[in-house]
Amino acid sequence: MKKRIPVGLKDYEKLRNxxxxxxxxxxxxxxxxxxxxxVTLITRPRRFGKTINISMMAEFFDITKNxxxxxxxTKIINTEYVSEMNQYPTVFISFADAKGDKxxxxxxxxxYFRSLYNDYxxxxxxxxxxxxxxxxxxxxxxxxxKIELKHISDSLAFLMRILEKYYNKKVMVFIDEYDTPFIEAxxxxxxxxxxxxxxxMLHNALKTSTSLQYAMMTGIQRVxxxxxxxxxxxxxxxxxxxxxxxxxxxxxxxxxxxxxxYYDMSLNSEVKSMYNGYHFGNNExxxxxxxxxxxxxxxLEPYWINTSSN
Length: 310
Known about the structure:
The protein is α/β, with parallel strands linked by helices.
């Protein structure tokens, strides 16, 4: 039986465990560790595999998991960096669903952090007196609907600090679609109301925190208004023009050819004309959303244009 086509799949664990066709992008982990950039921001268009890749990164490093089975027979296993698997306290955040008006966006972000704190409940058992005060202040802010984001701007940095204390290791941070709440706020006219809280949260965790090992963020653009990252001088930005990580988002021509052949299709001139059209760094890249939908439906259509309102 042919493997299922992973159209729209966002969870790397599900991708690997439930008989889906997988394009191996695990050498991205090797590049990430070799570059050693403290904070990396990768911007790509929608539907180019940002979420599945950032999910893969978190699964690989998370110290609370055993990922040997998940990464069995992948390319990263044959490198020296396999020793880094499940060695770091890891925080994975997705702002992908932080969409709507100010209240909805704020509630989503608070809800996400409540879940994070709940997942790591066991690390808060032996806090000092001052740590307990900080913890209770943050929990109050996360559970009180009237408290704004600017009053919980230490929630990520504090979680990282206690994780480092508990595991005696620096923390890996992965943030998917970091820019979604900023874009929603801009479009909805409440940008000024949430900017400071979100910017402070990123600054406190990625710039001033001493608990950070490495961080990676993905988004569709670098939010430049009001210089959100103006003092984040440890940030390396990788856009579609840059060679860094270029081959890991979207499908290369060889990956596209193999995927289509697996489903008894071919990469002919019509498919090339419809679905490549992208150059990331020096790589010719095919849109994975379109390729996978084409493999599923066997109809040559511009699937990507229906993926976003903006």
